[in-house]
Amino acid sequence: MKKLTLLGATGSIGTQTVDIVLQHPELFEITALSAGHNIAGLKKILEDIPAKTVCVSEERDAETLRGEYPDITFVSGDEGLCTLAAADDYDLLVNALVGFVGFLPTLKAIESGHDVALANKETLVCGGALIDRALKQYGRVLYPIDSEHSAIFQCLQGNKKEQVKRLIITASGGSFRNLKRDELKDVTVEQALAHPNWSMGAKITIDSANMMNKGFEVTEAHWLFDLPYEQIDVVMHPESIVHSMVEYCDHSVIGQLGAPDMRLPIQYALTWPDRYFYRQDEPLDLTKVGTLHFSAPDMERYPLLALAYEAGKKGGNLGAVMNAANEMANQAFRNKEIPFLMIEDIVIDAVHTVPYKELETVQDLIDADAWGRQFALDKIRSYKE
Ligand code: MG
């Protein structure tokens, strides 16, 4: 029986993790979880999951909940997330938080001797160097939940890392993949949120529409699989059936295929090295898919993908600044404060303006994040005026 602590339980990955746990009550129990601001969603989860400790964003919500659930310990805020991650009464942290807020809990979990099943890619985009150092120091591992990285992880099983020639990350192209760049000027939030293949949270769906998400995934792959950026390629694949591939030194290419359903990579991260039955409504049937397409990405059409390679290769504080500016710009677009293409302008400008600095400490990372947020905020404000 594996005891899980689940951060971000009410989000898209969180609720699907709960699904997996409920499908396998003999394998897992969730003993602690976090739920942000979605108290209705939290209460629904608590009907099925007898958690002992729960973290919510606001202390006033925690106060109310203590009255309603006397058997559960409630904590709150970013500090509460770190308390859950640093506790010693669980086996595996599932980090399904969205954004930079996921970094510190990941670090705390590793430092307190836990492995982490990671859906929070911002952890590695911002502070990959610090996480990598902690993993080596404490002898812990990350299990990828992101579908592309789960695919690569699966393709690496039974093979030698030194014999890998390159990783090939597939990209659907997101909701605007059929539009040219000059057609993106007036696209709306509603159009951006309609992803052709995947059902995901709002933030990542916008990140997919401009391929910031794919750029993040390149950085994530760099840290997860310890390969230079020159050995990580992106290939457009609109059907989202081949979830990613690994090419070996003999040019053999191994890919992982499946229906676009996040519950499969979630389950594999929890059960590795084993595989278990998983109830899926429509398992992949290639005879129904018929044709699969692949093409090279256009770096001018998707400048944030190009930026992520640039920031990743230079390293230091650039990943954290890129992420922070993107979090603010993505949110501002969803609030209808700025147009879609301005997300790109803000993020590119932030990375090209910030003075470069190595990341030595967590404080360096927090400073870089704050710098990127302030830079983006100033740009958004001056646009609105
Ligand atoms: Mg992905």
Question: What's the short story on this structure?
Answer:
With 385 residues, this protein is an alpha/beta fold.
Can you characterise this structure?
This protein is of the alpha/beta class and 385 residues long. The chain has 3 domains: 2-140, Rossmann fold; 147-313, no CATH class; 315-385, RNA polymerase sigma factor, region 2, helix turn helix motif (Rna Polymerase Sigma Factor, Chain: A, Orthogonal Bundle), CATH 1.10.1740.10. It contains 16 helices and 11 strands. Strands 4-3-2-1-5-6-7 form a 7-stranded parallel β-sheet, sandwiched between helices. β3, α3 and β4 (73-76) form a beta-alpha-beta unit. α5 (103-111) runs parallel beside α6, α9 crosses α14 (318-334) and α14 packs antiparallel against α15 (340-353). The protein is globular. The model has no long low-confidence stretch (mean pLDDT 97). Bound molecules: magnesium ion (MG).
Strand content: 5-15%
Average pLDDT number:
97
SSE run: EHEHEHEHEHEHEHEHHHEEEHHHHHH
Helix segment tally: 16
